[in-house]
Fold these 2 entries.
Entry 1:
Amino acid sequence: MWKWEYVWDLLPQLLSALRVTMYATLSGFVVAALLGLLLAIGLRSRFAVLRYTIRAIVEFIRSTPLLVQVFSLFYILPMLFPSASISAFWTGVIGLGVHYSTYLSEVYRSGIDGVPQGQWEAANALNFTKTQTWTKIILPQAIRPVVPVMGNYLIVIFKETPILMAITLVELLLTAKNAASESYRVFEPYTVVGVLFLIISLIMTYLVRLLEKKLNGKYAG
């Protein structure tokens, strides 16, 4: 039994929650992208202890559920270190960012491995420092081909944000749940949430594919 009047009354709340969801998605992706790059570079370090330590951390994070990690950050960590207590929003951002940085590190790795060996040798011949080699030669060539894959992970992070309701972040799904508990109507809130997730995901997918075609056309040219 669908009631449009109820939907129109509820829609402003859901759109407001959608804004929080998008903020968490984009912030989490930025953290994942930056930290993932550091992990990828660290995994190529000539220091074995550093490489093995980073590899162990990456495998641990990838082998444990995101929900458990978010719970640990929000509930357990402040019990051990009271000064580490932060808001649900930033806990969610850190949780999403750290978790998916381990996946993006592999994406970066594939891009870095795709840079021809001659580029490394040319940088060495020109007496470039390590910083110059990475920033001026390697990373510009390594990142551009993997941008579409990174875009796909942005979509994945967006679809994972409902997990953050477990730490009381009032995102899209929790807003719908609260509305359903107040009105005892579940059909409209959850349906609208599903439609919003579908629309945003389709828009993101379209933009990622558009970007991929543009990059492929650039390389083909």
Entry 2:
Amino acid sequence: MSIYDFKVKTIDGEEISLEEYKGKVLLIANTASKCGFTPQYKDLQKLYEQYNSQGFEILGFPSNQFAEQEPGSNNEVKTFCEINYGVKFPMFEKIEVRGENAHPLFKYLTEKAPFKGFDLEDATGKFLHTHLVNNFPDYLVGDSIKWNFTKFLINKEGNVVARFESPVEPMDIAPEVEKLL
């Protein structure tokens, strides 16, 4: 099984197979418009522009599961991303990314790339860990998505090769993307 076995709906409601991305390096992220990590859209777009012509795609999946930080409709999310961050990479419909109703794609991603903890030497990683311990301790259980902007790197064969937690900045992933291209 690979990510190519999954179907998803674009932010405009069109169902597609991830097989459309066969042979490309992918970065799949769960996103939100009202999160402290929302400015990562800027660097995700920068990363996309830098490597897209070499066979790289970013797939954004909005989710409202983390402190209701993505309350808007799909159209509102799309407009927000385009106006505020110039997002041109593919965005998909709002989904659940953790728990019983998590989209099968995200169940697969977290199974293939388990949670290995936050970098507690990093101030943002330490802050997020503390925030979850104090406010959402059940989020830290298991391998599920812990917060917005968790990112999964997929190779050209559709295999999950790395997981980057929310505090990891998109441009810090560039060397890993280059290796796979």
